[in-house]
Amino acid sequence: MKLRILIVDDEPLARQRIRMLLEEEDGIELVGECASGVEAVATVRKLKPNLMFLDVQMPVLDGFGVLEELDTERLPVVIFVTAYDKFAIRAFELHALDYLLKPFDRLRFGKAVDRARAQLENDEFAKATKHLQALLKDLPLHNRLDRLLIKTGNRVTFLRLDEVDYIQAAGNYVRVFVADEVHLLRETMSQLESRLKGTSFVRIHRSTIVNIDRIRELQPTFHGDYAVLLHSGAELTLSRGYRDKLEARLGHSL
Asked: Is the pTM of this model over 0.85?
């Protein structure tokens, strides 16, 4: 099987190093190079490589952020490229994922390529995908998420989490409210709630997640529900079934 490879790294010399080593490999096609995570997301969706060398440490959208923005059912085989990062290396080893630790030599590079080729040729691709999905499921526990990427047509908008007031369900999408702006994000409430673990966001209703730093006042209504008043003037509902979650985050009983 031919390896259709995408290189993603914000350092030109790092991309050049991988490109030069690939020239010594048989059965490969270099489909592209990306200097940022944002560019990588668009390129993977367009060119559909089956192998990606992915730098972990990149500004704005890092390697983990790239994977979180992609369809986890259609991820390429990934070889992570990283400078020493204790958390990242431990996560890769825990989930049996391959990585190259900078600076890496020709022998280590060749082994990584051979392993990727074997995964694609020996029906192990599904197993590799499950390992990546398991990694992404664990990432929110380490409070990595600090912004949301909103894609509208060819436009990509980055929203810092501390700018967001609240989030509401809209079918298979969510609406993200920032001051007087509303952005549409293709993600379910459950998926987003998982990604937001460890942040200032908490789910207060089956259809609402709120930034607790934006709450101005809580007013009891009826049957254990509360009106949640935000500094923006928005009024939300804290339903009885989600009251415990908010109390746990506030460290105070209502």
From this structure: no
